[in-house]
Structure formats: C-alpha cells, structure tokens
Amino acid sequence: MSSDSDIKQESVRLFSELKNVSLRKNVKWTLEDCEKIAPYTLEINKLKKEKDAVILAHSYTNPEIMYGVADTIGDSYALSMEASRVKAKTIIFAGVWFMAETAKIINPSKNIYIPAGHAGCTLADSMTGEDLSKFKEKYPGVPVICYINSSADVKAYSDVCVTSANVYDIAAKMPGDKLIFVPDVLMADNLQAELKRRGVRKEIVSTGGSCCVHDKYTEQDVEHLRSEYPGIKVMIHPEARIEICRLCDYVGGTGGMLKYVAESKDKTLGLLTEVGLVNRLEHDNPDKKFIWNKGTCAYMKRNTLLNTLSALQNPSSAQTVVVEENICNRASECIEKMFKMTDR
Question: What fold, for 214-292?
C-alpha cells in the first residue's frame, strides 16, 4: 500500500503532466484530481516492473492513461513500430482490439492484454476476411490495400497495410492502375483525390464502413469554427467526408496533426477529431489554445486505470489477445510490407 508521502509525490508528478490538459470541456485537471488517481498510477507503475510489462497507449485514450502510466503514446503506426521493438515479456495495449491484435501479429511471442477487453472499432468491425475475399472476386488480380483499422483476418487477405500517415505514398507505389482499399470508404474518397492531385493515375474501389467519430463532422462544424474565430486554421482527419475535408486547412492523421501544430505559428487552432488528441496537443503545446466541439471514441475510453490494473494483476480471457497462427502469419506479411514500403 502506498504511503501518504508517495501519493503526494505522485500527485505532484501527475499534475506537472496534466495541468494544461482538459479533464472535461472547459475544465483543466487540478492537483486534487491528480490526488484521486495517484494510488492507481503508483500501483500500475509498480506492477509493470514486477511483471516485466510495458504499456502502449493510443493518442485517443484518456489523459490519465497517456500521462499517468503509458510507456509509449502514439498513433497506430508509431505503436506498431514500438510493439515490434518491445523486449519486455508483456504488452498492455490501451487502445482498441485491432491495435492489440496488430501488436500480437508483429510480436507473437509476447503476452498481449487489452484493458478494455474486446473494445471494437466501427471501421474494423465493418467487414470480415470473408467479406473481403468475396469483394476481391469482382476485381481479379487487383492489389488490396487495407487500412490498419481492420481485423487480423482482413489483413490476412490484403497485400499491404497502411495508416493515415503513409497511405498516399504506399498507394502511389503499388503496381497497376486500380487498387482495392478497405475498410474505410470515406478515406478511400480522400485517397482518390490526393492521388489525382499528385498526378498518380489509379482508380480506387472500396467497400466497408466509416469511423463513428470522424464521419459525424459537417459543413456547419467548420462554419461555426470560422464564424466564432475568424482566421482560425481548422484541422481534420482523412476519415471524414471529402467535402468536409476540402473546407479545412489541414487534413491528416494524429501524427501529422501533432507535427502541424508544433510547426504552426498560430496560437488558436480548430480541431475536428477525437478529444484524446486534443488532450495530447494541450499537453505538448501549453502556449496554444485548441477549439474542439465534439468527437469522442467510446471504445477508446473503455480503457481505464482500473481495468489496466486488472490486466496487470489477473488478466481475464476477454482481455487476452489471441490470433490464430495461420491468420497471424498471413497478416504479418501484410504489415511487414507496410514497414518496408514506408519511407523511414
């Protein structure tokens, strides 16, 4: 059990990380808020050492996960790369199921646990490997690119995996004049438009679904930001509808947005993306103001300090990530090809 002095010291550490971050809309973290979570972060960080475990956290998880217990915070690509390098026996993956699955595919000898259990993703859940196999029959010989937000069996039926950070470059390098892109039909539209802008002549055919956060943004969301904050730069994720993306100043994934903000001279920026990234930007850029109106992934927010603690203490079967060997091997080829085709 942690002593009062340990809790006080941990609270001060947490507050130094979270003081510029929103606890909820228009409310920042306080020292008192940090005192409430300090016993849990202390216990989790102690158990990590005892269990030879590391915690990888996606940028859409809660701030107390990212800045209280995570060893690495990142987007899908960065976390995939980190998972491939982990030496520890166990990876606790604070994210959604397809991400933890990807970590298992990349580093199959590790114990992989996800605190939230089978936390889904509307993109990854929009199609199965069998769905993709049937779709491929309509386009024999056409290469298949799958977005990383896909299940292991979809990756197993694909030629190469991509993220929002490398999709345009990898698509341009693929052979032929036609590509199948799954499972994000909205990103497929943005991919087609960007390839055309670059002078790359390829037809994109797609099937699947959309992100339950980014597909909700409308013209009115952009108009509201511009009317309330004249001259504001607005950023959006390419998982949004193309007509909304065209109204914004920057279109890119989480890594791209972090870089854009760090290099921007603007002190106020508008964000049409998940609130977890807003929290990261607040943490990294305390001198800037971020205007965000909506966008919360309920699946990501299922990862909490309590279920992270349980995943370390006594992981349940629902928290344990298992990928069938044949699927794992085939999906691994798809992911490894992404690493090889990505400019380091």
Answer: Rossmann fold (3.40.50)
Average pLDDT over residues 151-179: 96
What number of other Cβ atoms are within 10 A of residue 288's Cβ?
Answer: 17
pLDDT, one tens digit per residue, over 283-312 is 999 999 999 999 999 999 999 999 999 999
SS3 of 208, please?
Answer: coil
Nearest to 205 by CA among 232, 226, 187, 178: 178
pLDDT digits (tens, 9 = 90+) for 211-220: 999 999 999 9
Q: Is the pLDDT of residue 344 over 60?
A: no
Topology given in CATH for the domain delimited by 124-211: Rossmann fold (3.40.50)
The residue extents of the domains of the chain are: 4-119+300-319, 124-211, 214-292
Cβ distance 280 to 73 under 8 Å? yes
Q: How far apart are CA 146 and CA 150, in angstroms?
A: 7
76 CB-near residues (< 8 Å, 6+ apart): 58, 99, 102, 148, 149, 163, 164
CATH number, domain 4-119+300-319: 3.40.50.10800
Residue 122 DSSP code = T
* Whether the domain at 4-119+300-319 and the domain at 124-211 fall into the same CATH topology: yes
Residue found by looking up tokens 């920057």 in the block: 250
The H or E element spanning position 320 is none
Cα–Cα distance between 182 and 85 in angstroms, integer? Answer: 27
pTM above 0.85, yes or no: yes
Terminal-residue alpha carbon distance, the chain: 45
CA distance 180 to 73: 31
